[in-house]
Amino acid sequence: MLSKKATCNSHGQDSSYFLGWKEYEKNPYHPLTNPSGIIQLGLAENQLSFDLIESWLESHQEAMTLKKDGVLMFKELALFQDYHGLPAFKSALAEFMSEMRGNKVEFNPEKLVLTAGATSANETLMFCLTDPGDAFLLPTPYYPGFDRDLKWRTGAEIVPIHCSSNNGFKITKQALEKAYNNAKKRNLRIKGVLITNPSNPLGTSMTRDELDILINFIASKDIHLISDEIYSGTVFASPGFISVKEVIKGRDDVSNKVHIVYSLSKDLGLPGFRVGAIYSEDDLVVAAATKMSSFGLISSQTQYLLSVMLSDKDFTMKYIMENKKRLEHRHRIFVDGLESAGIKCLNSNAGLFCWVDMRHLLKSKTFEAEMELWKKILFQVGLNISPGASCHCQEPGFFRMCFANMSTDTLNLALQRLNNFVEADDTNCTHRRLSSLPKWVRRLFAFSSQMGSSPFAFLSKVRTLDKTQHPCVNALNPSGLAVSS
């Protein structure tokens, strides 16, 4: 007796991305009460700079108690319900967005639409720009939640723009055209392209060349571009962040077709405050989105508190600079820890996560092997990570791992667990491969181990000594992993 929407399976809740969360919630790690529990590496939260915000709150009790110049604002805020939002907050948010972009661009508060988080902002734009069955192109890999946020209630379709590890998953003109033509073959009406910049899950900011390719593409096809820039304040290293708003300066042909989504969930680490926004130069989009925002408003108390906080320029500048330093430091700890375990990741400069390459740990180059590895890491190692398949990556063996939502001690424990798993996997793989080696090699390997020298360094020498160049010997590298021919 329920509606089709209530009973359909298009929400995406069965994705491994969400299933990992469910397992974590059943058995969450706690250093004292549950030290063997699952550590959450699947949550893109920024908990590194809470102390800066808490310090500000402690020194601004008037804002906390909803007072202004000693006068209680409670009644005014409790009765306020205009879905256009508090003018003071919209102005403060517009200025903060400019600060995050190095004041290279300006945002008109009148063209901002407030929403209950970026999820609501993206869905609202889908409602404004598509009818059921219309399609948006998204570069892969992309945030797994988009299958829910963009499609579930709107009826819109997602067509992937398949990007490759060969060039660091950068968007190319060829990939855009191929995706566009594939959509046309399916008789889909393409209404636009949606990107995350910086990318979730890659943790990379887009170059000027990539953005130019995108702008020229949407101009040639006469379609829209949505730029989700909720991670703009997390860019901690070169090449820096370039907003699409900066790229379209002077481009009157596309100015009303480019729409920006922003949020305070990642940059300020306030996902629970549910603060998002749409910025558009298209007056019709702004008007329609404002009407729709009445279904997901930000509380007036939240708007008031944040209007005071974001208007404090000394605080915002200090926060932006210090938060980036902390993200860079935490990123380095994580990358170094992965490298110690023999694991590499995509060279990244932004975000709260790394795009980790574990293809060498797969039993085969298949998504079935990726799922098998994911289940081992989730249930045996006790780490919740997001498999590449959930992000619609075409190449098995990549995973998104988050590093900013926990203490340093918890992160180090996660890295130690992963390192132990890789070492055990290396040992098992080596024993399997040793069984096919010549007997004299197996004896020398055992002797080397007994004498306390590195068996893998020994195998490296064996490759030089073995005149027959036995293929099994030649297939072993110093890390004990098979080298593909």
Automatic annotation (TrEMBL):
Cofactor(s) listed in the protein's UniProt record: pyridoxal 5'-phosphate
InterPro entries reported for this sequence: Aminotransferase_I/II_large (IPR004839), Ethylene_sulfur-biosynth (IPR050478), NHTrfase_class1_PyrdxlP-BS (IPR004838), PyrdxlP-dep_Trfase (IPR015424), PyrdxlP-dep_Trfase_major (IPR015421), PyrdxlP-dep_Trfase_small (IPR015422)
GO molecular function, one term: transaminase activity
CDD domains for this protein: AAT_like (cd00609)
Keywords: Ethylene biosynthesis, Fruit ripening, Lyase, Pyridoxal phosphate, S-adenosyl-L-methionine
S-adenosyl-L-methionine is among the record's keywords: yes
Pathway(s) where this gene product acts: Alkene biosynthesis; ethylene biosynthesis via S-adenosyl-L-methionine; ethylene from S-adenosyl-L-methionine: step 1/2
Pfam families linked to this entry: Aminotran_1_2 (PF00155)
PROSITE patterns xref list: AA_TRANSFER_CLASS_1
Domain Aminotransferase class I/classII large: 39-418
Catalytic activity annotation: S-adenosyl-L-methionine = 1-aminocyclopropane-1-carboxylate + S-methyl-5'-thioadenosine + H(+)
Keyword Lyase listed: yes
One biological process term in Gene Ontology: ethylene biosynthetic process
Listed EC numbers: 4.4.1.14
Name of the featured protein: 1-aminocyclopropane-1-carboxylate synthase
Species of origin: Dioscorea cayennensis subsp. rotundata (White Guinea yam)
